[in-house]
Amino acid sequence: MAAEDSRSAACTGSSLLQPVSEITNLPLDQVNFVVCQLCALLSAFWFRLFLHPSKTSPFIRHVVATLLGLYFALFCFGWYALHFLVQSGLTYGIMILTGVEHMHKYCLLVALSYLSLCQITRVYVFDYGMYSADFTGPMMVITQKITSLAFEIHDGMARKEEHLTPGQKILAIRRMPSLLEYFSYNCNFMGILAGPTCSYNDYIAFIEGDPRRHRDQDADRKANGKLRQSEPSPNMEVVRKVATSFFCLLVFLSVCKVFPVERNIDDNFIANTPFYAQAVYLYLSMLTTRPKYYFVWTLADAINNAAGFGFNGYDSDGSPRWDLISNLRILNIEFATSFKVFLDNWNIQTAHWLKRVCYERCPYHPTAATFILSAMWHGAYPGYYLTFLTGIVITLAARAVRHNVRPHFLQSPAHKQVYDVITWAATQIAICYTVVPFVLLSVGPSIKFYRSWYFSLHIGCVLLAVALPVKPRHLRLKDQQKNLLQRHLEATDSNCRQKEKTT
C-alpha cells in the first residue's frame, strides 16, 4: 500500500489512470506517458488525414498541433508543464530583444541554465534516484530546439553565405519566426513528450505541405526515370515502427529484472566470479537496459511519421524513406564495430544537435567540449559526468586505433572479418564500461565498479591515445578537402577525355 501511495505521489499529472497503474503495477507517470503517446499516435493519423495542408491553412495546423501538445503535457506533468512555456517564452524574448549577432549565445546560456536549474531541483530537492518519467525530459528536447533555432537564425541572418558549411546553408533561417510558429515548433503534440528534435526548416516545411522544399532532392525525386508527384503514404512504416517499439517494450519488461545492473557492484559477485564472466554479465546487464530507449524513440518516430513528418526522399530503388528525424538504428547499434559507429546510431538527433551547436563551432578541443555539453544537458546526476568524461578518453583511443591499426586489416576480406569481430567485442565492452555510471547515477557505486575493473579501460585508453599518433582535426579536414578536390579534378579530366574521344 505504501508503495502504491509513493508511486501516486511521485506523479504530478492526472490521476485518471490510477486503476490502470495498480493493475499493471507500473508507476502512474509511466502509464500516463504511454497512454498519451498512443493518443498522440491516433491524433497524428487524424491530423494528416483531416488537417492536411491541401485542406487547411498552416495557421490552423500550428494552433491544433500546439494545443494538443500542451494538453498531453498537462495530462502527464500537471502544472510542471508550465516550465515548457516559461523556458520557451524567455528565450523568444531574448531572440526579439537582442541582435542576431549574439542571440545564439544568450539563448544557449539561458535555455541550458533553466534546464539545469529544473534538473537540480528535481534531483536534489524532490526525488533523487527516481528514474521515471519526469518533466525535465521534454525540457531537454525543447532546449535542443531553442538552441538549434537560435544558431540557425544566426547563420541565416548574421553570417555570410560563403562562411557556412553545406549543412548550415540548408538549415539557415532567413526570417524571425512568429510567436505561434515558435511555440508550435517547441510544443507540438508529435514531439512534446519524447521528441525527437528536428530542424525548424523541416518542421515548417511539413506544416506548410512541402517537406523537401529546402533540401536538394533532384536525385531523390526521380525514381525509374520519372518524377514522383504523389505524396507517399507512411502507413506501412508506422505499422513496422509501432510493432518494433512494442516488441522492445515486451523484451524490456521480460528481461530487465533478470540481469540487474546493480549486481556488477555486488561484493559476492565481484569476489566469486571470474573476470571473463563479469565481462559477459556486464554486457548482458547493459544490453537489457537498451530496449526501453528503443521503445520510446521508435514510438515517437512512428507518431511523427503518422502525421506525415519525417519523409526523407526516396531510395535508389524508388522506395520512400521515413528516417529524416529517426533517433536510432537498432541493428547498427547492436552490431557496431567502433565507438563512433555506436554513437552515430544512438540518439541520432541529439548527436546532430551536439555537432551543429558545439563540435562544428568550438575552436579548441571540440571532442571534450561536446562531451561536457552533453553531460550538462543530460542532468545533474554525478554518474552522467563520469560517463561522459570516460567517453572522452575512449573516443580518443578508438580514433587512434582506427587511424593506425585498421588499415593493416583491409588487405583481405578474411583479415577484415577478423578485425570486425574483435572490434565488435571491444566496442560492446567499452560502451558498457562507459555507461555503467549513467545507470547507477551516484559517484560511490560508479567508482566501486571501476575499481573492481582496476580502471583498466581508463588506463589502456590513455596509453593508446598517447602512444598512437592522430592528426589534429584541422589537418584531417584539410586532407579531406584535398581528396575531394583531387577526385573532382580526376572526374573533370575523365569527362574531358571522353568528350575528345567522342569528337
Short description:
The chain has helices spanning 2-10, 18-24, 28-50, 58-77, 82-97, 103-126, 136-158, 166-171, 179-187, 200-208, 235-255, 267-272, 275-287, 290-306, 330-334, 339-345, 348-359, 366-378, 382-404, 413-440, 443-452, 456-467, 473-502, and strands at residues 222-223, 226-227. The protein has 503 residues and is an all-alpha fold.
- Count of DSSP H/I helices: 23
Distance separating the two termini: 89 Å
Tally of strands: 2
Strand-residue fraction?
A: under 5%
Cα-atom radius of gyration? 24 Å
Features of the shown structure:
503 residues, mainly alpha, two-stranded antiparallel sheet, 23 helices, 68% helix
Description:
It is a single chain. This protein has 503 residues and is mostly helical. Helices cover 68% and strands 1% of the residues. The protein has 23 helices and two strands. The chain has helices at residues 2-10, 18-24, 28-50, 58-77, 82-97, 103-126, 136-158, 166-171, 179-187, 200-208, 235-255, 267-272, 275-287, 290-306, 330-334, 339-345, 348-359, 366-378, 382-404, 413-440, 443-452, 456-467, 473-502, and strands spanning 222-223, 226-227. Strands 1-2 form a two-stranded antiparallel ribbon. The termini are far apart. The model is unreliable at 1-9 and 217-228 (pLDDT under 50).
